Amino acid sequence: MLAHVYSCAVIGLEGVIIDIEVDYGQGMPHMAIVGLPDEAVKESRERVYSAIKNADLAYPRQPLTVNLAPASVRKEGPFFDLPIAIGVLITGEQIAPESIEGALIIGELSLDGSVRHVRGVLAVAAQARKDGYRRLFVPACDAAEATLIPDIEVYPVNTLRELVDHLVGEELIPPGTPIEYAPGDEISVDTDFSEIKGQEHIKRALEVAAAGGHNVLMSGPPGAGKTLLARAITSILPRLSLDEALEVTGIYSICDMLPAGTPLIQIRPFRAPHHTISHAGLVGGGNIPHPGEISLAHRGVLFLDELPEFGQRSLEVLRQPIEDKIVTISRANGSFTFPANFMLIGAMNPCPCGYYGDKLRACTCAQSVITNYQKRISGPLLDRIDIHLQVPRVDYQKLSSQRTGEPSSQIRMRVEAARQRQLARFAGTKLTSNADMTPKEIRTYCQVAPDGEALMKSAMRQLKLTARGYHRVLKLARTIADLAGDPDIKSEHLAESLQYRQAEEE
Questions:
Q1: Which of 73, 111, 353, 386 is deepest in the core (most CB within 10 A)?
Q2: Rounded-to-integer distance, Cα 59 and Cα 369, Å
Q3: How many of the other CB atoms lie within 10 Å of CB of 226?
Q4: Rounded to whole angstroms, how far apart are CA atoms 252 and 377?
Q5: Amino acid 504: pLDDT
Q6: Are residues 58 and 154 in the same domain?
């Protein structure tokens, strides 16, 4: 009997439906797997045989051919153990073919017949719903993740025997209960803004950045608090919407990085890769491309500490994702596009020793060394950063003070109010923040009052702003106006926005 069992492969961030055909022939018992499988798929032979035997089921005594169609799609990973086992049992007439109509099956098998975790279940569930499958059988540990996709029944499978009993009608598996998305009132963070002494103007700038999703570059001596400030920004970022949470969860599921017991990520990501990271690790890559750090930071923060220490190639490749909010990686076997809508926060010392311009400690670097160090960050990349900040050292009086600053919860309320104004403004579009605006939206929503026109004209000349810099000043001014609750951009909003561009000209 020829058996057809439907499963799913994960390519990039998308699912691809796989038709698993199992047929038997004449001769000595063995299993041949064809259809462009990788080694993990080929090893399914041994796992399937042992799982069927240890589940007290009969393994056919004929040679079996397993075809994974379409043959043009590369199959990798242990996704297909469970559906292959079901196909083998259908071929052996232990399960009726009608029992799996309208069903999609994925799962890795242990030798004892238990079903193990697989990555990318959210993408699989989304593809199953898109292609009209009514039922989805997944490992029990992944069922909660799959229930995030509506309009499909998800069945958690613990063992091969349990699934067989369900399909033959002996003991039915109850479908999983969908997870209700309910963002909490409080966000658990390691660093609260109230714990940071001094640096009030830096905190204000980071509030503006969080409100509009703008990129930030901080420069200052060692120990000034740059890293602490960067890590604290997650405490003032707005909560993820359901759509954003699903996007982030899907990426982490594909990368097999979902925290245990967390089927849905509800906190914005914060990624801080070391400066020794490879180009592929940062932007994504590999023979079969996988997401890099910039995609793992999607809808969150990418923090690059010691920015000039990163490789020149890695830094320059950030230019396109910062603008387009996506990264496209092309290989011989296809082109893959990953989302990369992140806030870039960079931190750097002004020179190799770190004390150039410091009032209390002399710099030991030659001027040529300082110049070469600062030139490691190119002008085009600097032009894509909205907020440039000089972070001074904190004096003793502020450090020793017992007074605490404004807590992150209060700042986050203002940030979320500003984001709500932006969501209302961009209703019906894919835009979620001011940083996402294109020149078309800037022309519509960033009109400048007559007194502001004179200010912008002067700034263009004095700061030597590019067209991109001009647009970024307007987007930043729009965010400052949103924080103030003003429908129009006023001259004071432009003035504050322009002061964040001055650092690049020093």
A1: 386
A2: 72
A3: 26
A4: 30
A5: 42
A6: yes
What sign for the dihedral angle of Cα 343, 344, 350, 354? Answer: positive
- Asked whether residue 114 falls in the same domain as residue 40, the answer is yes
DSSP-H helix ranges across 31-71:
39-42, 44-54
**Long-range contacts from 142-146, C-beta under 8 angstroms, 24+ separation:** 142/117, 142/118, 143/176, 144/176, 144/179, 144/263, 145/121, 145/249, 145/253, 145/258, 145/263, 145/264, 146/121, 146/122, 146/176
400 plus 443 within the same structural domain: no
Query: Where are the alpha helices (H) located in 389-466, listed in sequence order?
Result: 396-400, 408-425, 439-445, 450-463
CA distance 285 to 243: 26
For residues 235, 237, 238 and 239, what is the CA-based torsion angle, rounded to 10 degrees?
-60
In a domain, 431, yes or no: no
User: Is cis: bond before 70, omega within 30 of 0?
Assistant: yes
Residue 209 is assigned to a structural domain of this protein: yes
* Dihedral class, residue 421 (left if φ above 0, else alpha if ψ from -120 to 50, else beta): alpha
Q: How many domains does the chain have?
A: 3
The answer to whether position 186 is within a domain reads no
In this predicted structure, what is the pLDDT of residue 184? 57
Range of the domain at 239: 193-406
pLDDT mean for each 10 residues of the chain (506 residues): 93 93 89 93 95 95 94 90 97 95 97 96 96 96 94 96 96 90 64 87 96 95 92 93 93 92 90 93 85 96 96 90 92 85 96 91 93 92 93 85 86 96 93 93 90 87 88 95 93 93 51
Q: For residue 402, give Cα distances in angstroms to 191, 195, 398, 405.
A: 17, 10, 9, 10
Give this prediction's pTM.
0.91
Question: Is 41 in the same domain as 126?
Answer: yes
Residue 181 in any domain: the answer is no
Directed axis angle between helix 450-463 and helix 491-499, to 10°?
A: 20
Q: What's the CATH number where 451 sits?
A: 1.10.8
305 Cβ contact partners less than 8 Å away, ≥ 6 residues apart: 226, 227, 230, 272, 275, 346, 347
pLDDT at 195: 86
